[in-house]
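dude i think i finally got it to work??
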Amino acid sequence: MNLPQNTQDIGVVGSPSTNTELTIDLLMEASEERVVGALVAFQACQNGRPVITVGQIVSVELRNRWHEDSVFRNLIKRTGEIPPITNRQDTRTAALVVGATFCENQGQYEPDVLGMVPSTGTRVFRVNQEILNKLLTVYSNEVFYLGKAYANDILLPMWFKHFGSGQGGAGEAYHLGIFGKTGSGKSGLAKMILLAYARHKEMSILIIDPQGEFSLELQGTRVGQQGLPMDTILRSMGREFRRYAISDIQLDEWDLLEELLVSQRFTEQLGIPSGSIDNSRRAAEVIREALKQKKLDELDSIDCLKHALEVLSQNKHAEYVYSTPTRKQQLQDRVSKLLQQPELEPLYKDHWQPLAQLFASGQGRRKLYGIVKDLLQTQQSNNARPIIVIDISEQGNRNIWSEDLQKRILVKLLNALVNGSQNTLSTNTTANILVILDEAHRHAPSGSIERGTQADILRAQLRTAVRETRKYGVGWCFISQTLGGLDNEIIQQLRILFFGFGLALGEEFRRLREFIGGDDRAMELYQSFRDPHSFPQNHMKEFPFMAVGPVSPLSFSGRPLFFTAFTEPDELVKVNNLVQQQSLQLE
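look at this
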């Protein structure tokens, strides 16, 4: 095969070996090199055609059969060594996990499957960037680099295809998962993956942002130490991004108003205790019916509030809320007091107005179905489809926020997304949308949840979305600190997974082992990951990851790949040619 000859041999194929894992007898000159994690390759002949197989060294073992003999061990414990035996009789073997096999066809390299075992003595050499680029010439326009192969100085090729058909498309949607403890680099990796998908102008991206990190990044505020200028890079790509806080979303259902009157504790201002849920719901129902003759988007006035309170204070309505005369009278007295100044003004400003404004129309405000419609719009000429961030964080919604409101909005959004994407089937197209959900374990936790609560409804809706929207062209990317804390039904739907540092203990370790099919060698390599915060200086930090699934042209065999993510933004930009301008000020 016409491959570069300036390669470094590190060993030869030994015994025992299989077509998926080979034993490599290391050469003497490689005995003091760092080879665990190294990308290596060997050439062979299969069906009369030359092939080259690339794999990763996952472990190294030292054996000296004389040192294992009890007689010699007794001598060694006295002298510390036996000169003719110690060191000189050492043998080192490495375990090579097969990653991808290529065969040559008219000067191009095509993927193949290794269905044989090369003979002992077959030379195994380190893969350099030149060899890798030659093997992947056919995929050069599709390859994206998130970092370098673990313990290598070689860029590890990956691909992130859009979910439609045609050039650069996978033809179907798939779900991703990014897992790792706090500080493992998962947020930084998620931002790089976002940029990888943003290259596809025919793809829409929806980011559900419960912490506000993505919203700040797209507004130009850097979060953390990565310093990746996402907003600048996206603009250079011609990608439009829009941010919607909770106050920018126009709600449009009377049932939701009724629910929010209770969950946002407006009914508590009427003297109804928080524990009296049934009474609160009846009071909210009365208020809703009192305002039914008005338009839902015109409730933001003190007159509407006054009218609702007057109706509630009427005998038949107060009696509907409380059947006992004493409690009924207390409610009427409280409402009568609220109708008087100076009680009415603060009630309006602090409690009624923030609620009513969620349903008000206005410039820049969008209904959830309108946002989904924007995501589903077909690409016009060369214009890119939108990137939309829904900021449901407390920091980004100081005027009105609660976990209950956050969950209710997500439920409505998911329902609109499922219905909207389902409608694309009638047009013989796919939605081609990536949805990124940060802190996924908060919204779809494992374990039991009280039935009928918003948390239970949201988890069920997420399960439905993950199961049903994939066939409509909607893929999900879940970012979570934990494997065990995320709902198992959702995890089972994930096809591509990235595991950062911190999942090597207890239940997390068991779940992780299941994902890679019980591959002990891969688990040993994963356990060698160092905590990024254990490095003495920031510039020395490494953020290692294990990737599982069809994420790379080197992962045809389905075995895990190991890489170290970029820590310098300019390196990511340069190797992926993300910015066409000659100069970009990286912050």
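Residues 144 and 577 are 10 Å apart (CA to CA).
im so relieved honestly
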